[in-house]
Structure formats: structure tokens, C-alpha cells
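Structural prep section.
Before we set up the soaks we want a predicted structure of the protein with glutamic acid in place, mainly to decide which crystallisation condition to try first. Input record follows.
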Amino acid sequence: MSTAQLPSYLSKENIGPWHIFLQQVEQVAPQLDRTLWPWVETLRRPKRSLIVDVPIRRDNGVVEHFEGYRVHHNTSRGPGKGGVRFHQDVTLSEVMALAGWMTIKNAVVNVPFGGAKGGVRVDPRQLSPSELEGVTRRYTSEISSMIGPNQDIPAPDMNTNAQVMAWMMDTYSMGEGRTVTGVVTGKPLSLGGSLGRPDATGRGVFVTAREAARKLDLPIEGARVAVQGFGNVGEASARIFARHGARIVAVQDVSATVYNPAGLDILALKRFQLENGTLLGAPGCEFVDSAAFWSVPCEFMVPAALESQINRHNAGEIVARVVVEGANGPTTPEADIILAERGITVVPDVLANAGGVTVSYFEWVQDFSSFFWSEDEINARLERIMSEAFGAIWSMAEERKLSLRAAAFVIGCSRVLEARAIRGLYP
Ligand code: GLU
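Run finished without errors. Recording the C-alpha cells verbatim:
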């Protein structure tokens, strides 16, 4: 890739995950309708990127500064939408890539949103609850010119949750002088949150895995599943797989890799993690080296942690039949090729983990209409959207002999660029 395509604020050295997003766009560009080619460049440039200083007073009285970001990658199809991540390694490049994936994801499930993402470069484990609130409120205030229920709607992502969304909603509302529930999704139920939102990403992971299993004639009942990441996405995916008769044979989080070929008790494991802050010492399982996770014999592997976890170093060890990407960007383009050569089906992030933003969309609609749906209704609508999106991607992949990722990108990019082209250039 030529550096001419890079924005001046990213050098070849710090391009990070944005590079992966660009490669994915490059791969599908020739597959797009010719009339859209003049607009592809839009996807190579985020619409706007904001870097903010987030100073807080620590409990010991010392003022400390953190770096925060909010990126609107594309808003051709509607307001920006995407989560906020708190992590010590967050970079602008990462947030740009995550915003880009949101653009594609929202188009793949056809919710009327563009793609956005935010993050603060902070290790939330080092913050007290009041310091965490301080970071959240100051960050929200700093990005307030970019967010709003019709402009850009943040949501939870890694290390952020319903409480963080409540603080964001409150901070934004104070600035507006009125309560604006629709400015964020993933809120607590008492503030206009939606039933089904906490499990939505995991549920979507399961639905797309089940659809893939149907196509591949692979039973879920008795299937072995390995899950990397035991936060919101990993835990819910594992729990829902287990409820449908699958055996969760391995779970990995930052603290440990636990293994039990007979199947782990997911509820007990989560309880242990919540009580002890670690998986180390959990009963009823074996502890294995973290690198051994990738070669665990299983039918489904669910990466539900950080980007680039499946890469050229470990892709050759994976023996799963299907990789279902609960995380954003967990597989590098090199690893994609290795997995394809080995006959492993990859259900890509922009489809597999889109359940979260789909129910975020339901939450936003419910907030606007101040009319709330039942959990059954939400889950049924989620199922329908996810399985229809899966069906369209599978058919296109078969017809054009593409990977599911490439097919998802063709569908997503086409929807975005059609909207872009028909809107035309301003002024
Ligand atoms: N953070 C989630 C994602 O990566 C959800 C975003 C949202 O609900 O807006 O898809």
C-alpha cells in the first residue's frame, strides 16, 4: 500500500489496525459495481477524527492526563454509531479501524447508522470508581460537540458498561439542560435502556454460528467451543452456546486459559471471575499455557477479545471448523488466507458481532418513541435481522467464490457507497 493514502497524522510505523481495515477495503474494491469506484476513496479517509485531553484529579489529589478519541468514519447512511473503549493500549489508528468496521457492520445489518468509535487510553483497572466516573464525564464533555442522538450515538465496548453509559448520558444531558436518553445506547433499563442489550452481541454470535453450522451440516448439540475473552461478548456467547447443548472446552481471559474437554460450567466460571477478579484458581478445570489455546480441539472458536489475535504465528495451529469473530478485527489478513487454505470457515466480525449494535438500534428507536418492547420481541427481531444478513452474505460468497468477509464487505461497502454517490458532493 502506498503511504500516499495515509493521512498525515499516521506514519507507516504507527498505522496499526487501520492498515488492516484499508487492506480489507482494497481486497473488495474490484468486486464493487464500477459506478461506485470513484467513491471508494471515501472509505480510506475517516470523515472526522478528534483527539482530546482528558485530565482528572486522582483520589490522591494529583491531576493526571489521558488521551481520548472519537472518530466518525462515515455518516453517509445516518448518524455515527459505535462504542467507547477504555484500554491502556488504545490508539487513534485503532479507533479509526474500529470506526471503519462499524461503518461496514451497520450497513451489513442495514441499520440506518454510519460508523463511529471512541476510546480513552487508560487502564480502568487502575482507577477507583470515582476516578472512572471522572474520566468518563470529562471525556464525554470533551467530545460533546461530536455526539448527540441525531449525530453520533456512543455505546459500550471493551471495559465500558451500562454505568459508564449512564454517566455519559447524564454529562451530555447536563450540557443540554434537559434529559437526552437517546445520546447513548447500552444504558441501564431505568434510563431508557433496552431489554436484551447486555446479551445481544453474544446472542448474535450464536445465531450466526448456528446458521454457519446449518450450512456446514455441523450439529451444535455436543459441539466443542473455545472462547477467547470472558467479558460481555465472550461470556454471553459461551453461555448461549452451552444452553443449546454445546460444550465449552476452553476459555481464555487476560488472567488465565482454562480447559476442560468434558465442558466448563460457564455460570460458575463467571461467578468465580467476578468474585476473584481472575480465572486463576477456578475449580473444575485445567490451567494451560496461553499459547495452547489456539490448538484446542474444537468445532467453533470464538475470539472475543482484542484485534489481531489470530495471526500468521498461530493461524496454522487452529483446528476449529468455524471461527466466529465476537471481537472486532481479531483475524489479520494473513491469517485469513491461512485459515481459508485449511478449509476453516470464518464468520467475520462485521456480521458475527453485529447483534450488539442491532439491539442498540432498537434501544435508540424505543427511546425516540418512548415505547418499550418485550424481550421476546427484541430477540425475535434480532434473530431475523442476523439470520437474513447471514443468508445474503452466504449466497454472495457462494455465487462469487468469495470468503464470507469479502462478501460482507461487498454488501456493506456497496450500501455505504450507493448512499454516498446519490447524496453527491457538498457544496
Ligand atoms: N461496541 C459494540 C460494537 O463494536 C457495539 C456498538 C454499538 O452498540 O453502538 O459493535
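Observations: The chain has twelve helices and twelve strands.
Flagged for discussion at group meeting.
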